[in-house]
Design goal:
There is one protein chain. The chain has 153 residues and is mostly helical. It folds into two domains: 4-120, Alpha Horseshoe (Serine Threonine Protein Phosphatase 5, Tetratricopeptide repeat), CATH 1.25.40.10; 123-153. It contains eight helices and no strands.
Length: 153
């Protein structure tokens, strides 16, 4: 049975989290978790909020991992753990967890989009010029289009 008050608090916490106010979100999300401790989404989002508000990376990671173990086929739980890893400046771990998520939820495009977003940038074409320089930008576009054409062959 769904605890309606816990769900309302979860929604409020999620709104604060998406609005960038992790401190306010944390109290709402913790309330939801206290009233429904077996909900993997509540557990995972408390982890995300702890990472954003308090920078307690280990605690946030532990919560997100435990939520994933409860429901391995939910892509959002992988996305949440990846968000914690990115916040902790662990991009390779984020990429690894997103790849694992694709194994369990291969049809979820959000995982692939997040993985693509994490992809490392190619080096500047002319490293002695700033990345934003017009020559680097235009040569980079040419390289990008050439690589797309080669990949299509």
């Amino acid at each position: 049975m769904v605890d309606l008050q816990a769900f309302q608090e979860f929604r409020s916490g999620l709104a604060f989290l998406r609005g960038g106010d992790a401190h306010k979100a944390l109290s709402h999300l913790r309330y939801a978790l206290d009233h429904d401790p077996d909900n993997p989404f509540y557990i995972s989002y408390v982890g995300v909020a702890i990472a954003a508000a308090e920078q307690k990376w280990a605690e946030a990671e532990k919560l997100c991992h435990s939520a994933m173990r409860m429901n391995r086929r939910q892509a959002q739980l992988y996305l949440n753990l990846a968000e914690v890893y990115v916040a902790a400046d662990r991009k390779q771990d984020a990429a690894d967890i997103l790849a694992r998520g694709l194994h369990y939820a291969p049809r979820d495009q959000r995982l692939q989009m997040a993985l693509d977003h994490l992809a490392m940038r190619r080096p500047a074409m002319l490293p002695f010029l700033p990345r934003q320089h017009v020559l680097n930008r235009n040569l980079g576009k040419i390289r990008h289009h050439a690589l797309q054409i080669l990949a299509a062959l």
